[in-house]
Structure formats: structure tokens, C-alpha cells
Amino acid sequence: MNNIPKVKVGIVAVSRDCFPESLSVNRRKALVAAYEGKYGKDDIYECPVCIVESEIHMVQALEDIKAAGCNALCVYLGNFGPEISETLLAKHFDGPKMFVAAAEESQNDLIQGRGDAYCGMLNASYNLKLRNVGAYIPEYPVGDADDLADMIHGFLPIARAIIGLSDLKIISFGPRPLNFLACNAPIKQLYNLGVEIEENSELDLFEAFNKHEGDERIPEVVADMEKELGAGNKKPEILAKLAQYELTLLDWVEAHKGYRKYVAIAGKCWPAFQTQFGFVPCYVNSRLTGRGIPVSCEVDIYGCLSEFIGTCISEDAVTLLDINNSVPKDMYKESIEGKFDYKHTDTFMGFHCGNTCSKKLSSHEMKYQMIMARSLPIEVTNGTLEGDIIPGDITFYRLQSTADCKLRAYVAQGEVLPVATRSFGAIGVFAIKEMGRFYRHVLIEKNYPHHGAVAFGHYGKELFEVFKYLGVPVEDLNYNQPASLPYPTENPFA
User: Fold this and answer.
1) 378-413: string of b/e by CB count within 10 Å (b at 16+)?
2) pTM summary value
3) Which residue, among 247, 224, 246, 226, has the nearest Cα to 236 in the 3D structure?
4) What is the distance between the alpha carbons of residues 333 and 331, in angstroms, rounded to a whole number?
5) What is the pLDDT of residues 360-409, one digit of tens each?
6) CA–CA dist 256, 244 (Å, integer)
7) What is the tens place of the pLDDT at every residue in 126-161?
8) How far apart are CA 237 and CA 245, in angstroms?
9) Cα first-last separation, the chain
10) Under a CB-based contact definition with an 8 Å cutoff, are residues 109 and 54 in contact?
11) Are 349 and 423 in contact (CB under 8 A)?
């Protein structure tokens, strides 16, 4: 995937001048050695020019890590640390930053060898708040070299998402379809997040598509589609048009991303798309998303923003699904009850027409879009990639701007069950603990749209930290709470 950033963390050790500098020097060296032993050298850079004790040292360290190409920062309190200089370093560094602190090393060295970084972290956090500087601080940010190496490695996916957003352009085509007010997208919060957006008419896209008719690259793309689809190539007659559309989008991205490095697309797919283009774009959306260029359906701008965040965190394809339908009771009784530790209300089906990457489907076939074909000729609804989603761990999540331009987010971990859906589209039987309560007291109560992003794995920890870093208020950062923890709006007598 070349549409997400590569992170290089500059590790800068700091020291309070009344503590032995050697504590920070030696502990930094031990930390770097531990990291390289576990994870290699590619992701980190050890700032060698100085231990930061003063503002002058801060400037020297800042210049050094910038020259080394670092786009993320780890401030390492090898001892108590200089609260002003270390927070100024974070303030003036343009990128995601984290703070960690050294644990004491031995009961036999608690006089000259005691660093008091446990205490210094408190002052660091206080000074960060005084200066309005955001930083990632792990759940327990104090540890030995091995502990802190793991914390820095855990910071990488968080940093990738923050860096990615700072250089992201969302390209959208057309207004949202009629009766899709739920995907309303106030763009002010995009700018607040550092994201650019280019909103285009679907007529502009149609013009560009027509200009790609006869493009000499079409046969090569068709051959690649045929290879991917294999036995699932049930609509070979539509592949040339889909290839033409794929090239249109890729060329548009190259011509329009401007000064931004990363791109995500919020695409139009109905109601006029089928009759004018002559197909549905679902399969092309799935292919681009599989390459790390998320494409959301129905011009869902915050959906594609959410997908991009998940792509950066997981370094893998994601998808966007409707939180769509309940699992029938007879299916639950036959295939889930007694076999998996979920109540009926913990289950639901996640569905979309055919936008999920082929490698995330148990099997796949190119088909027509059944819902649209109820009112249109089948031949203009070809282009979906259908199949049951592969069983395994997932994270359902979304970052959203409300109608009054406030950021809100949710995260819920669960799994796709190995249960045949007996339905159509790209679809899976999902199970999330306490989903019924989460559905009522978060998704409905907080007015979320029906689209949710899906990452394939458990990434709740990283997503939660990214949303906090982005400034989502704690009261608007929700998750599926256990039964023992009621929601504020939950009726205790129900």
C-alpha cells in the first residue's frame, strides 16, 4: 500500500539539570537497543546531538530529528526531565508525539541511580496542557527498556493515522443521493483535522469517464480483473467499462491530489449513475480499497475518512458496510446459539452491495445489484462483487461530524461468525458483545448514520487513541459498554 505514510520516530531523551545526565544517556541507549532487538532499526532514530536540559538543547534536538527525516517524536524522560524544554520540543515539532518515562532499575541503585521520571511525567502532562499541546501518553507510560520499546512500537499505527490525516485529500463526486441525509457531511471539521476536500460534480466524473473510452490501458486492467475474479467472473461483458472507470478514478487522483500525499474517495453510485455509466461501481471501489485507496459508497465523506484511518492503523484493506439487518431467530437457533458465546441481540448483519475487497470475502462472484435491479434493467446494474465476508476478528467504528459540526466517534470490537448468510451482496454475520444496547444507546441515541467502517482485526485500542488525539470529547467517544456499566440514557428499570 503506497497510500499511507511510513513512520520514523525520533527518540529524544531529556534530563533535569539537577539529576545525573548519565541516567538519560544510558537509559536511552538501552531503550534503542531493546527496540532494535525486537523490531529492527527502520522505524526509529536515536537523537545523538544532546540530552535536552535547556531551551537551546531543545532547538538542537528539534533540528536534528527534522534533518533525519523524523515525522513522529518520542520524548523520553530518562529522569525527572525539564518540564519547560521538553514540552516546548513537543510544541514545535510538527507531527504526532508521545511521552514515556523511565522506570527505576534496581532496589540496589535508589540513591544516585534514582531518576524520578514517574514524578516528572506528571509535570510534563501538566505543562502540555498549559501550552495546549496534544500528545499520546500510553495507559501506563513508565517502564524499563523492553516495556518502552513495546510502547513506541504501539505508537506507530496511531502516528500513521495522524500523519496520514495531515496530508489527506478527500475527493468526492456528486451530492449524496436523495433521502440520504444521514450521510450529511459538514466539512468544517475536516479542515479542523487538517484534511482537504475536493467536491466535484458527478457530471465532471462522467465527462472524464467518456474521455477514457478506448484507453489503451483497458485490456491490461481487464486481464487483471479476470485474474482476480477467477471462477467468479460471471459478468465478463462489463469488465471493459469497469476498467475504464478504474482508470478514470486513478488518473483523476493523480491530476487532482495537488500538494497532498494521500487520497480517499467518496463516490456516487446511484440513482443516475447506473443509467448513465451503464454499470455500478462497487467492484472498482473494492479494488481501489484493496490497494489502500478507500472508496466510500453514496458520497459518504466521513465514511471514507473513517476507512482511511483504519487503513493507516491496520496497514490492510478495510470496508464500509451498512449496519443492516437483524439475524433471523431461526438462523440464530440453528447456527449460533450454544456454539458461540453471544446473545441473539449481540448479532446483526453487515452488508453493502459489493464494495468489499475480494481478499476479505470467503468466495466472490461478479453479479448485478439486486436492489437497484428491482426498478432498473439488470444490464445497467452489473458490477457488484458478492460473497460472504471471511470469519474472524473485526473492529466496527466511525468518526463523524454532527450537523452542528462537533466530532463524535464510536469503536466496537467483535467478529464475523463462520455462519452462511444465505443473502446477497458483500455481507457477513457480525457479533459484538452487548450490540443491542450499543445499537440503542450509542448508534441511535447519538444519531449515527447506518454506515460503519470495518477493520479486519482488533484495533480498538489504536482507534480509541487516535480519536482522543484528534480531540473527540470523552463523552462523545463511545464503545460497547459491558452489561455492568449502564449508558447514561439506559432505563435502569427496563
Assistant:
1) eebbbbbbbbbbbeeebbbbbbbbeeeeebbbbbbb
2) 0.95
3) 226
4) 5
5) 999 999 998 888 878 888 888 899 999 999 999 999 999 999 888 899 99
6) 18
7) 999 999 999 999 999 999 999 999 999 999 999 999
8) 14
9) 48
10) no
11) yes
